[in-house]
């Protein structure tokens, strides 16, 4: 069981001197809203909210995101609405919660569900990357408590996590989250392979760990001779199970050929100290040829920075070292989240525009890559054209489908995009449940409902003055032509 005190302790360290009252209030609010509800595991519902917030804290997010994490299921699962949250916690938190609520309403099954899911994730990303972070945090806890669900649901959620969430975490540079998502899903998707790899790990790692202790001792001794060197931490880290599994398949299932089963990660103060450490390690142990990698001078295309070296520590004993600064480490583990945190620290909030943040991280390019990778499996992504993403808006149908439209598109464009008939017979529109003029420019995230008149035979000529899409324009002209032809025939008759 998780406690609020646990969360507050972590936040106190991350935000020294910050006022945490709103976090406490968000917890109280969630506890009240979910009062009486229990998870299938038998735990009170609010334990899930806390777990989500704790996962978020581990990603080093800001305080509004923590609040939204605590409140994320309130509109979906309780009598309280997003409006209520807005009144109590302000627009920023309410928007984040709203983003999560929209994300969770999925209609389809199978491949269509996959596409729908991706669309929604992209939409959320285009608005505020923090929504995705909350979704990851939420999903991690759901995966941890998956045992109580039916096998069918277990499989569905695990597959979704493996095929959508994990690749997205990967593209966002969130290695730690990706690893956790994969390991937790792996167990349900391939139970036999999971059992095999975890047994293999369990039988191999004790001797590895024993060796690790000896290595650490030697390293510490060498470092005491360098008192000026500032080192934050030295840790042995076991490889994530799923990534070990994939590596084993590439190496004839032979675990003796996996060198980074346990890697030693050293976090140093500065880049210069990273190189000094590399030198010290190479003086202690002989490096393997071709295994010294300088990702600091030459970062990986995704921006990953670190020094890697694999050394021979004894007969047949090989260990990988990863050396990096604290900032590099946070970015490697939490990717866009960590990066965002640094930008937030450097700049006041209003100065740090979302676009600039993301461009700096170059994840827009990453998304394009993602799109290319999955082009074959979905027609949708070809049409969304993520490369023109900034010029697109994404709106919802009342059923929760996402429709991509050009900037400034109107409800008429929306109607024609869905179906010619819906356009031709359109008489009015509700945007976010409010009646609005048909010429209203839509904004990303709007929920658009088209009201039709079944007896209506043709569109209005005036619509040509404001429609934005070629589809709408062509259909309107076509329908008008057809109507006037009919009229001519009728007159002649
Ligand atoms: Mn949830």
TrEMBL record:
GO terms for biological process: guanosine tetraphosphate metabolic process. CDD domains: NT_Rel-Spo_like, TGS_RSH. Pathway: Purine metabolism. Residues 45-143 form the HD domain. One of its GO terms (cellular component) is plasma membrane. Residues 389-452 form the TGS domain. PROSITE patterns: HD, TGS. In eubacteria ppGpp (guanosine 3'-diphosphate 5'-diphosphate) is a mediator of the stringent response that coordinates a variety of cellular activities in response to changes in nutritional abundance. PANTHER family: GTP PYROPHOSPHOKINASE (PTHR21262:SF31), GUANOSINE-3',5'-BIS DIPHOSPHATE 3'-PYROPHOSPHOHYDROLASE (PTHR21262). This is TGS domain-containing protein.
């Amino acid at each position: 069981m998780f406690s609020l005190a646990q969360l507050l302790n972590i936040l106190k360290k991350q935000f020294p001197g910050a006022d945490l009252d709103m976090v406490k209030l968000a917890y109280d609010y969630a506890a009240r809203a979910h009062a009486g509800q229990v998870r299938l595991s038998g735990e009170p519902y609010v334990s899930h909210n806390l777990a989500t917030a704790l996962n978020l804290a581990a990603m080093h997010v800001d305080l509004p995101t923590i609040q939204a994490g605590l409140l994320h299921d309130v509109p979906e699962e309780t009598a309280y609405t997003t409006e209520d949250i807005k009144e109590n916690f302000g627009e920023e938190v309410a928007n984040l919660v709203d983003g999560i609520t929209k994300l969770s309403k999925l209609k389809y099954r199978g491949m269509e569900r996959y596409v729908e899911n991706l669309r929604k994730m992209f939409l959320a990303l285009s608005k505020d990357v923090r929504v995705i972070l909350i979704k990851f945090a939420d999903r991690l806890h759901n995966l941890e408590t998956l045992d109580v669900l039916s096998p069918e649901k277990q499989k569905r959620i695990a597959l979704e996590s493996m095929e959508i969430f994990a690749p997205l975490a990967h593209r966002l540079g969130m290695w730690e989250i990706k690893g956790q998502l994969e390991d937790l899903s792996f167990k349900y998707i391939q139970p036999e392979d999971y059992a095999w790899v975890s047994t293999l790990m369990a039988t191999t790692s004790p001797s590895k760990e024993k060796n690790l202790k000896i290595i650490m001792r030697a390293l510490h001794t060498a470092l005491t001779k360098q008192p000026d060197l500032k080192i934050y931490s030295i840790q042995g880290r076991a490889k994530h199970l799923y990534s070990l599994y994939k590596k084993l398949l590439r190496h004839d299932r032979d675990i003796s050929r996996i060198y980074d089963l346990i890697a030693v990660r050293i976090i140093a103060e500065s880049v210069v100290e990273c190189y000094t450490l590399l030198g010290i390690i190479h003086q202690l142990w002989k490096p393997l040829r071709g295994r010294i990698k300088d990702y600091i001078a030459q970062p990986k295309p995704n921006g990953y920075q670190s020094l890697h070296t694999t050394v021979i520590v004894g007969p047949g004993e090989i260990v990988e070292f990863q050396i990096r600064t604290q900032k590099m480490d946070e970015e490697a583990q939490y990717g866009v989240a960590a990066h965002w945190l640094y930008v937030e620290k450097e700049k006041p909030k209003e100065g740090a525009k979302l676009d600039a943040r993301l461009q700096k991280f170059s994840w827009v390019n990453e998304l394009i890559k993602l799109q290319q990778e999955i082009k074959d499996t979905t027609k949708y992504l070809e049409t969304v054209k993520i490369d023109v993403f900034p010029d697109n808006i994404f709106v919802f149908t009342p059923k929760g489908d996402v429709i991509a439209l050009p900037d400034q598109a109107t409800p008429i464009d929306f109607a024609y995009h869905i179906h010619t008939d819906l356009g031709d017979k359109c008489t009015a529109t509700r945007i976010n449940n409010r009646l609005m003029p048909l010429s209203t420019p839509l904004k990303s995230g709007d929920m658009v409902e088209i009201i039709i008149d079944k007896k209506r035979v043709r569109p209005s000529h005036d619509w040509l003055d404001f429609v934005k899409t070629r589809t709408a324009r062509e259909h309107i002209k076509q329908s008008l032509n057809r109507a006037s032809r009919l009229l001519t025939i009728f007159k002649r008759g």
